[in-house]
Amino acid sequence: MIFDNFRRQLRKEAQIWQEEGLIDHNLYQQLAQKYQFNSLETAARDRFVFILIAVGSILLGLGVITFVAANWQAWGREVKVILLLSIFLGTNIAGFTLWNSSSNLPSRDRKRRQRVLGEGLLLLGALSIGANMALLAQMFHIGGSSYQLYLGWGLAVLFMAYGLRLTSLSILSLILFLMGYWVGIFDWNIPRNEWTWGRLIIEHMPLIITGLFVPLAYWCRSLGIFRVTAIAFVIAWQFHLRSLQVLTYINVSPWFAIAAFVLPPALLWSYNDRFFRPINSLKFQPFAQALSLVFLSVMFYMLSFRWVWEARTVASANDLINILLNNWLPLIDVAIFTLIALWQWWELLRPNNRDRAERSTRGDRQQTDIKTIVIGGLLIVTASIIFIHQALNPIPVIAIFAFNVLLAVFACGLIRDGLELGQRRAFWGGIVLLALQIISRMLEYETALLFKSLVFLVCGAAVIIAGLWFERYLSSLPDASPETHHS
């Protein structure tokens, strides 16, 4: 659809260029042949037909499902098994045939249309795996928890994704893994002492999704898979180590809190694509570092609140036993990710002529090195405050003050990068962080209503003035345009 809009706009502009004499008839014909201007109307008609076929297929599928549901109890077990396997095999075989044979078609539109239809059938076949697993388990009285169904379903779809290198199947598999994880974490009816394959996956979910889906992102050449995997890792890691809980407990090892808050940004910022270069040369490092900055922003903002450091809870003997029983398995993940982070930072900081040769200018190298040193310093300060507060002596006042200072410094650093590089996201991220810090501190502590009103007015006016000034500043830069100034 986007490419068709581009071709339609290009044809309109090319006609104007030809009328104005900017291009001749031969060049126009070359453009028309390369971008297939003559097939635009055909593509629109085929797309309409494809939508009708898709709607009709959905209605037919609903009809089949309704028919099966009406006669499900009347059929024997053999008929049910044959029907389920036929639906699964039929959709997957038809989808693979359409998807694989689309490369032999001469027309680009027909190739794209048939490939999309084949991928849709493969996705439908992947969805039918879960229904087959659930119904077959019900028919043959195979017990199991719902989270195991999602995990097994996700593994089956993962095999399809690796075999076909399809982004849609990869995302579906990751979603199924996460659904199994959330069900396994929040379903309190599941015994925590059952050591099944599903329980082991739940206990090591951050390590498993990283090990399975990061290589898959390179294999499928998909930045989307890497983005979803990185975000899922960060979220699962916080639930994995119960970050706020271990931070407020007394007599609990500080390494849990340090790992929860420091390891994710350390891993993301030092991430390097070099290990996966034999698969392809894609670069996912910029997104990993951007996500690291987002994590640091949220972390500094959360840890700047007073209640985080003053809400100290003495852990009883039973609490300590439960924490140790529930966290000795995650310690394996902590150890593995700590070793990976140390190795990545060693590779990032040590002189490497090959890696430095890939950077374009000396200024870019120096700027990257300075950012790396600053991020490393922020992580060391964060780990030191948590360690002193947890292991040596509670320092709530110093911790609150320190993280407010770190939040302000981090926000000013984002604003500086936005001004220096002309990046709107960095500039506005710093402005939003400063405004949130000021407003949060004003609401957190008892202040007069008139003072609160004044703070809101000043923050609103400052944001408007800063935004207008920044846009004027961008327009004064050489070759300034909305497209060139983004992060």
Folded structure, characterized:
- This protein is globular.
- Helix 18 packs antiparallel against helix 19.
- It contains 20 helices and two strands.
- It has helices at about 1-20, 25-35, 40-70, 75-100, 110-140, 145-165, 165-185, 195-205, 205-220, 225-240, 245-250, 255-270, 285-305, 305-310, 315-350, 355, 360-390, 395-420, 425-445, 450-475; strands spanning about 250, 315.
- With about 475 residues, the chain is mostly helical.
- Helices cover about 80% and strands about 0% of the residues.
- The model is unreliable at about 355-360 and about 480-485 (pLDDT under 50).
- Strands 1-2 form a two-stranded parallel sheet.
- Among the domains are: about 10-35, no CATH class; about 205-350, no CATH class; about 395-485.
